[in-house]
Amino acid sequence: MADRFLQIAIEEARQGLREGGIPIGSVIVHGEEIIGRGHNRRVQRRSAILHGEMDALENAGRLAAAIYRESTIYTTLSPCSMCTGAILLYGIPRVVIGENETFLGEETLLASRGISVEVVQNPECIALMEEFIRENPALWNEDIGV
Q1: Beta carbons within 8 Å of 55's beta carbon, 6+ residues apart
Q2: What is the largest CA-CA distance in the chain?
Q3: How many Å apart are CA 96 and CA 116, to the nearest integer?
Q4: In contact, 126 and 102? CB cutoff 8 Å
Q5: C-alpha to C-alpha distance for 51 and 48, rounded to whole angstroms
Q6: What is the DSSP letter of 20?
Q7: Which residues pair with 75 in a beta bridge?
């Protein structure tokens, strides 16, 4: 089942790339239902905060805390500090990460707070980010705060 939801996150990442943005996608799943999905829209929306995970949370909308505490977030790339903070704030207990070779986020912090962290090292996720970083180094550095 994880493969299916990660594939949807990859579709979100590809949509972001088609829109001229950064190819990172995310899906939030409660049970077997997608309750939020999104992709990095910093470029498209001229936003300081719309990373893939943040966009998925925004699109999930205002839900009871209990829903988030029973959900899994799938993301194509290791979560940065901001997205990790949101995962911790809402108590999402499980994170499935497409890859962490091109960027290693706050996985140690997540795990230290009892969050289940699974890194898949999906070749499609890796290739998407490697190509994007190679072709857009300045935009990538801006996105991760370098």
Answers
A1: 26, 38, 39, 40, 41
A2: 41
A3: 8
A4: yes
A5: 8
A6: T
A7: 26, 97
Q: Is 118 a catalytic residue?
A: no
Among 12, 32, 53, 99, the active-site one is 53
The one-letter code for the residue type at 121 is Q
Q: Which amino acid is at 73?
A: I
Euclidean distance between CA atoms 38 and 25, whole angstroms: 6
By the 8 A CB rule, do 88 and 112 touch? no
Sheet holding 116-119, edge to edge: 33-39, 25-30, 71-75, 94-97, 116-119
pLDDT of the chain, 146 residues: tens digit per residue: 568 999 999 999 999 999 999 999 999 999 999 999 999 999 999 999 999 999 999 999 999 999 999 999 999 999 999 999 999 999 999 999 999 999 999 999 999 999 999 999 999 999 999 999 999 998 888 877 77
Q: What is the pTM of this model?
A: 0.95
* 13: alpha, beta or left? (left if phi > 0; alpha if psi -120 to 50): alpha
106: number of Cβ within 10 Å? 21
Chain position carrying tokens 């499935």: 96
CA dihedral 95, 98, 102, 103 (to 10 degrees): -10
